[in-house]
Amino acid sequence: MVMTVAALLVWAAAAPLAAPRQVPATAPTGSTRLLDVPYLPQSEDLCGGAAMAMVLRYWGDRKVQPEDFLALVDRSASGIHTSALTADVKRRGWQAFPRDAATGASGEWIREQIDRGRPIVALVEISPNRYHYIVVVGWLRDRVIAHDPANAPFQLMSTAEFDRAWTAAGRWTLLVLPGDDRPSAAEASPERTATERSPATGACGPLIQNMVNLARTGQMAGAESGLLAATHWCPRNPAAWRELAGIRFLQSRWGEAASMAEHAAALEPGDEAGWQLVATSRFLNEEPAAALGAWNRIARPAVDLIRVEGVRRTRHPVV
Q1: Rg of the chain in Å (alpha carbons)
Q2: Which of 74, 89, 162, 283 could form a disulfide with 291 if both were Cys (CB 3.0 to 4.6 A apart)?
Q3: Which residues, listed in sequence order, are joined to residue 146 by a DSSP beta bridge?
Q4: Dihedral through CA 90, CA 92, CA 93, CA 95, nearest 10?
Q5: What is the pLDDT confidence band of residue 1, given thresholds at 50, 70 and 90?
Q6: Greatest pairwise CA separation for the chain in angstroms
Q7: For the ranges 7-11, 57-61, 261-265, which has the lowest average pLDDT?
Q8: Domain spanning 47-177: which superfamily?
Q9: Which residues sit opposite 139 in a β-bridge?
Q10: What integer is the mean pLDDT of 218-224?
Q11: Are 125 and 165 in contact (CB under 8 A)?
Q12: Which CATH code is given to the segment(s) 5-23+196-296?
């Protein structure tokens, strides 16, 4: 088991459980899906090739590599032009639908595509007159989740930050779909509920780990937003609740930390670190009975020796 933020906290204080508390309704609104797009890193000048390879792999092409797009690179521009990328993916037999500021590209449109199970390639400005391709895989009310081929998967940015960088690049986006125009298994029908369309926990695993890494570097606000997103998209993933409880613990919000940790423990009863976090949070929240009940779930505190004082003589043998 990876030692996570939550696991590191519970040793700071030392103690069945009371009825489970209701977890605060803090889940953000936004797209109902986090797309489990395979991540591929880029080599030099091939962010466009890496972004396109990720999307094609998502749709089922398991052999495509970023280097397959090497011939498209314009060395003078240190990358691939949007027109060349669009033309090449069409040549490969895929449907390609570019949009930009002139043709109505908007955040709402991207979010609608994510809800339909369709990742979006987007162009953003990373410095004056330098542009970069990313793949948008999730959209919240105030956060965008994207695979950045030059950095890491499931990168979190504010919608304002994304919009500034995206607008500076002309709001160019590319929607790629299978060429036969048949409904894909990755696309959800409009009739399905948000719960039915929620992603597998595998999609949230890398996001959660990225947020744990952010928290370890002190970037608590970003980590909190990402973990809230994970509880929204993968409500049955215990790690999301446990790590968010760890953030609440660091914020000295003991009651919320305990409630979220209890929720995680209910989903994964065998997780010792989760019960440690429940117990410690309850203890610090001045709930000793609840804390002791949580510690007892993992056979703690351990009793090594019992000493009984006051009786000097008895007619009964003591075993």
Answers
A1: 25
A2: 283
A3: 136, 155
A4: -30
A5: very low
A6: 99
A7: 7-11
A8: Cysteine proteinases (3.90.70.10)
A9: 144
A10: 86
A11: yes
A12: 1.25.40.10
Instruction: Tell me what pLDDT residue 102 has.
Output: 94
123 close to 39: Cβ distance less than 8 angstroms: no
Residue 310's pLDDT is: 73
- Could you report the per-residue pLDDT of 66-102, keeping only the tens digit for each? 999 999 999 888 899 999 999 999 999 999 999 999 9
Please give the Cα distance from 276 to 265 (Å, whole number).
10
Residue 156 has pLDDT above 60, yes or no: yes
Name the phi and psi angles at 125, rounded to 5. Answer: -90, 125
Distance CA 178, CA 13 (A): 55
Q: Count of alpha carbons within 13 Å of 6, Cβ hemisphere only?
A: 36
Q: What does the alpha-carbon distance between residue 123 and residue 167 come to, in Å, rounded to a whole number?
A: 9
Mean pLDDT of 173-177: 98
Residue 1: strand, helix, or coil:
coil
What is the distance between the alpha carbons of residues 287 and 191, in angstroms, rounded to a whole number?
45
Count CB atoms within 10 A of the CB of residue 235: 17
236 close to 264: Cβ distance less than 8 angstroms: no
Name the residue ranges covered by the structural domains of the chain: 5-23+196-296, 47-177
Mean pLDDT score across all residues of the chain: 83
CA dist., res. 73 & res. 42, Å (int): 13
Q: Provide the percentage of residues in the chain whose pLDDT is more than 70.
A: 82
Q: Residue 197 pLDDT more than 60? A: no
The tokens for 77 are 């521009």
State which amino acid sits at residue 262.
E
Residue with tokens 């069409």: 90
Q: Which residue type occupies 263?
A: H
φ, ψ for residue 122, nearest 5 deg? -130, 150
